[in-house]
Structures
1.
Amino acid sequence: MEKNHLIQGIKAIYDSKRQEIGLRLHEFQEIWKRGTTEEIFAELVFCILTPQSRGRSCWAAVVDMTRKGVLFTGEAGQIVKELNRVRFMYKKSQYIVEARRRFLGDCRVSMKSIISQINDSHEAREWLVESVKGIGYKEASHFLRNIGFDQNLAILDRHIVRRLQFLGIIGEVPDSLSRRRYFEIEKTMMEFSRAVQIPMSYLDLVMWYMETGEIFK
């Protein structure tokens, strides 16, 4: 299939899904404007859970833990019981408890206030990667998008990277993404975004839709 034909397919999906994607992005922005500390923490937990796991399963686990009161008060052993649909559940349960202790405990530091003071998406991403166990560049970008802080960072999960390779935007799909390689692919995706005149925030969800058939988070 020719590259031009593939690009036309992306543009067609963008045109047909633009309103739906715009509404979803608005929902993310509302979290930053009006979301509680607990809602922002729930989004962080979702992103901690996502590596090598299905997004739907991860969010279902967050919803279940919230409903049962486990997310904000449960021990690691209680949390892990809710992660049976998530890979590396024991390690991730520990990450959740540690993040909760730091950002929701008695001596908590407001994550929103820290990010607001940084006021730069790339610096905020670096702070997250350095400060929160279980969070890499993909997860940090995902989190900042989902809380409505920034919508122009690349969320290079396996769906997006495969789509970029399929389009010929990158060569081989790397086995892992080093910091340097992540930034290289992000820059290439941004250049493609400008070339096809689809904002990065929309392009991510268009590509997600092309891989999964849905617009999620």
Note: The chain is about 70% helix and 0% strand.
2.
Amino acid sequence: MGESKKIVLFIVEGVTDKNSLALILSKIIENDKIVRFKIINGDMTAENGVNASNIYTKITNYIKEFIVSNVYKKSDILNVIHLVDMDGAFIKDDLIIQKDIDSSNSNDTRKYNHSIEYNTENIYAKNVSNIKSRNKQKSQILSKLAATDTVYGDLPYGIYFFSSNLEHVMHNKQGVLAYEKSKYAHEFEDKFAESPFSFVEFMNNPEFALTGDYKDTWDFIKKDANSLKRYTNFNIYLSTIKTE
């Protein structure tokens, strides 16, 4: 890699996140930068044993894995952009409702070991206490990361959300089944691959793109049931690309 090339490292939950965004972002981000993805195959903010005290170590380890597996150096990385699904993490407990759901039809089996369904007002789950615990953990971690501007020592860091998940924002489909995610990802890539700046316009759609500064968007998504509704602040990151 040439010395002038720096890596913009995106940390994402799954391969369909990469499939949706990698080609488009590589065409938008300037030629003196390289877009790379670290897929973690899950939601680190909801993972057993992860909490607000050790989340920095978790992220650092993922960055180190990326560096080692790709034979890079830490100094090759310009910044780290972390993309997360909100999954209703900040809603009040009384909006989590017990429902006997068939796990074979769950729209979120990729991420959790129990049955769960979402709409824009409630979470329905077989085991309500599990979701309450998950949300407490996830919200505490996300709050800490939203106030974080560096990781792994001095690497610039930003965390951007899709609510309640990426498919909800990109396709207005909140309940995409696991096996459908790949189809939607490739459709999205095909739609914008040849006109990547149309993707920027799409991501600024006032139906779901939040305005204000970075902190404002995080304050907003934490309120009421907003973390279940169709919102994103990824447009704020996209607005910075030309001046990075």
Note: Helices lie at 15-28, 55-69, 128-146, 166-171, 181-192, 196-203, 214-221, 234-238.
3.
Amino acid sequence: MGGGHVRVLRVFLIIAVVLGGLFVGADRWAVGYAEDRLADRIQARQGLAGGVGVDIHGFPFLTQALAHDLDQVDLTLGDLDVTTTDGRKTRLSQVEVVFHGVELNGDYSGGTARRAEGSALVGYADLSEAAQPGVSVAYGGSPGKVKVTAGVEFLGKTLTRSVVSTISLVEAKDAKGSKIVRVRADEVPGEGVPGVETAVRKKTDFDRRLDGGLPSGVQLTALTSDESGVHLTLGGTNLSLAG
């Protein structure tokens, strides 16, 4: 190959590298802009005081955007305040949701995801806030167990009782597919006195909805407990992403 051809080839390679760099730079700027805009809309829609993190996966982003179809969008909400069915407030921590197959709407302000999966944590202090007045909740020593302690009024005396309870998800009667968190004592020592178990269970057993405030369509699908709190598994199909 002659020297002239080598020089021409070298020029073409330099141009290709420069154009490639410009494209990558433009693509990363575009994805950053889209992530910030989507985060702002989600924060406004959810009424969140804290920050919202959005991470759009896949390269190049621009070709996905032109097709109005994103492979994966990760959403990090951090702490999320929720209101239970009886008006009590509590907090979900470390809320993270991954949306798959997001079809963007016309103005790129949101979209619909084919499915989502995620997780959240309810600390024991927050779970105690969602329980009955005067009730504290702690780890029960094994997955799916919690220890519930309550002061119980019985025959003019205050009895302090701690019980190991099972925490589980059950179907909510008023919302199709929605779940409520249920805490039920495995056993209540009655000490041979009629009515003690009933009095204790009125304080230690409770049901709570904890999905209020989650992104639209995201539901609780499973849970377990350990020393750090109650870990919630989230999921959903055909759900809105800041639409």
Note: The two ends are 58 Å apart (CA to CA).
